[in-house]
Amino acid sequence: MAAARKLESLNENFLTCSICTEGYKDPCTLTCGHTFCKGCLGKFLKTRQDAIRAKSIPCPYCRQMTRAPRPDRPVEEWVKQIKPSFLIQGLLDTLACGRNIDHGLSLTCSDTENRCHPCQDLGESHPANSYCQDCDVPLCERCVKMHASLPGTSNHVIADLGGAVKVTRRRRCTEHNEVMDFCCRDCNKAICHKCCIIYHRKCDSVVTIQSIMSEMRSVLTHNKGLITKSFNDTERSLQQHKSQIDAISHNKDKIKSQIRQASQKAMDVIKEKEKELLEELNEMTEKQSGQLRGRIKSGEIDMQMYQQYIEYITQVLKSGSQTDMFDIYQMCQSGAITEATDRDVTFTDSVPDSKLIFVSEIDERKLHKDVKLGRIQQNVCDVMDTRLGKINLSGTFDVMCRPVLHKTVSIKVDGDRKQSYTCDFTVLVVDGEETLVVSDYNNKCLKSFYTKNNKSRHSKLDLASNPSTVTRLRDNQVAVSFWSHNEIVIVRVTPDLVLQSRVTTKKKYKCLTAMSPSTLAAGCWDPPCVDILDVSGRVMRSVSRFKSGKNLICKPNFLCATDRGNILVSDSGSVYCITPEGDVVFTYTPTGDRRLGKPQGITTTSTGHILVTDKGAHKVILLTPAGEFVRDLLTSQDGLQYPHGLMFCDCKLYVGEHFEDTVKEFNCSIPQ
To answer: Which residues contact 422 (CB under 8 A, 6 or more apart)?
Structure first.
């Protein structure tokens, strides 16, 4: 049962496609290392038109692109071109074979083990009821008698098997065919008595296996406990992750409903505005049309009168009657007819053009990107340990608040050879535990501080060179840069620190920030630039000069990614924000009393405001999201001396000072 459960766990956790949630069928592995069924990957590719245009296959798990081997072929053949995963397929085949073998053994093991071995060698089958401890074989009643009658085996110890006792055979030496009853502790191997004499005479510790049985049982029991604990911890973690996935799905549906409600409200407002404009249009056009219809009616009456005059004059002229002609002549001469035709002469005047026009008050150039229904932001809802404090969601960032020093966390630990120097740090939440991860420049190491079982704990990972900045990639993963080393290190936080991989780079990067779990922005001094990298260290884009051609990048000290996907840079005397393509969003280069001395750490708040440390002026500066000065948030009067690293996390501001072994935590919220 235990073996079956382990096989089932192996299948579920390692041999199951994350798309169809079934065992792999024709597995293939992408360049990022993730494996999927070829059929599932092909269906997923058809939904990503952007990837098809880029001639690449996206990973459904980490979104990293795998270049199609032959993009000139039809899209349906791209996935088929990926080499199959022989390792995964081999595991599947081996497990399938193992299940068949285990099933067969379960049916035959009890039958074969408790059969008389000498009879089996002769082609017969008799149940064994005794066991020779010297020969290590089960015997039937007849073979026991034969055993006792032979001079070489007459003194062997014969034991009764009993009714339901299963025989456990002892291993024999492959060279001497003797039972391996001894153990050489120097060589750490089981041996027979002949091996003791021939090969292990000079060994210091050769004992019988029977004498260390209790020790072996204790070690095995202890290891079984450790493995069982790891199994249970992993199972519990997986269950927690599955619960989190369910919660994420539920939250997704909730936010989707909220987005649709916001969209509907916007459409309702637009519909109401449309109704008002249409009613106003109907009223104005009806007024215009009514005036014209009145004039038309009057004109039609005049036309009837004119028609009568025309017909009367025509008849008189046609009749030739002098009397009638004289009468109409007198009417014309007296002006009776002309007065009738002239009284509405204004009708024939030109009517001024009073055409209505619609003047749109919407800037169509900005409509597609500036219309806002709202935004989706991530809140961290975990509890911090007693050493670092607690995450508090009951307040929001107050732009005009005076930060209050909450506590000071020491990063000095046993074994430090030099004074600790907090170069940079970040805060993660790992399995519900908030963990402070610090790069100690002087001691060439990375440190983590957390609380477990109500006790403050720490972990230390030695590095090959002096670490510079550290940035969060995932909830349990960080990346570390080295100022004088062509390398970026990926570290897993459990919350203990485990070196995961080393990424060799072509440049020495002073600072890092994560744009996504698979994309980094890195600042370099020589040559001065900001590069966009993937997690393998490949430079996807390099920005050395703004697209405007001005403001050459000099010495990027710290980077920070904004929620809009832009990059904040603290440089030599300046703070600026650029897009990954090199467009300038804003620059902040004050002069005079506001001139920046040495801008270092930079971060953003929950409201989008920007915080930057000025090491030379001993202060933390607050800027608007557009890069405009608001005020000095912290100064030397608040106890700051050469502030360096900086991070804002859930209304808590963490500040590290130059060549100090502490991280100061300030509260920047107001109660709601």
So the answer is: 411, 438, 439, 440, 644, 645, 656, 657, 660, 661, 662, 663
pLDDT (tens digit per residue) in 356-378: 777 666 655 555 555 565 655 55
Q: Which of 61-65, 156-160, 249-253, 399-403 has the highest mean pLDDT?
A: 249-253
Cα 554 from Cα 557, distance rounded (Å): 10
Q: 448 with 458: CB under 8 angstroms?
A: yes
Query: How is residue 475 written in tokens?
Result: 């909830």
Percentages (nearest 5) of helix, strand, coil residues in the chain: 35, 30, 35
Rounded Cα gap, residues 387 and 433, in angstroms: 11
Supply the pLDDT for residue 422: 87
User: How buried is 582 (Cβ within 10 angstroms: 0-12 exposed, 13-18 middle, 19+ buried)?
Assistant: middle
Q: Do 636 and 618 contact (CB within 8 A), yes or no?
A: yes
CA dihedral of 590, 591, 594, 598, whole degrees rounded to 10: 80
E-state strands within 13-60: 27-29, 35-37, 56-58
Are the beta carbons of 383 and 634 closer than 8 angstroms? no
Strands 599-604 and 584-588, bridge-based pairing: unpaired
217-236 tens-digit pLDDT = 898 899 999 999 989 998 99
Phi first, then psi: what are they for 552, rounded to 5°? -60, 135
Which residues are 487's β-sheet partners? 504
What is the sign, positive or negative, of the torsion defined by CA atoms of 323, 329, 333, 339?
A: positive
Q: Name the strands in the sheet holding 487-493, side by side, starting at the edge strand that comes first in the sequence.
A: 467-474, 477-482, 487-493, 497-504
Tell me which of 237-246, 384-393, 452-461, 562-571 is least confident.
384-393
In terms of Cα–Cα distance, which of 455, 449, 424 is closest to 435? 449
pLDDT of residue 577: 92
Contacts (Cβ under 8 Å, ≥6 apart) of 349: none
- Per residue in 531-588, pLDDT (tens digit) is 999 888 889 889 887 766 566 788 999 999 998 889 999 998 899 999 988 888 899 9
Going along the chain from its start, the domains and CATH numbers come out as: 2-113 (3.30.40.10), 251-370 (no CATH), 401-671 (2.120.10.30)
* Residue 436 backbone class (left: φ over 0; alpha: ψ -120 to 50; beta: rest): beta
Note the pTM of the prediction, 2 decimals.
0.45
Ramachandran class of 126: left when φ > 0, alpha when ψ lies in -120 to 50, beta otherwise: beta
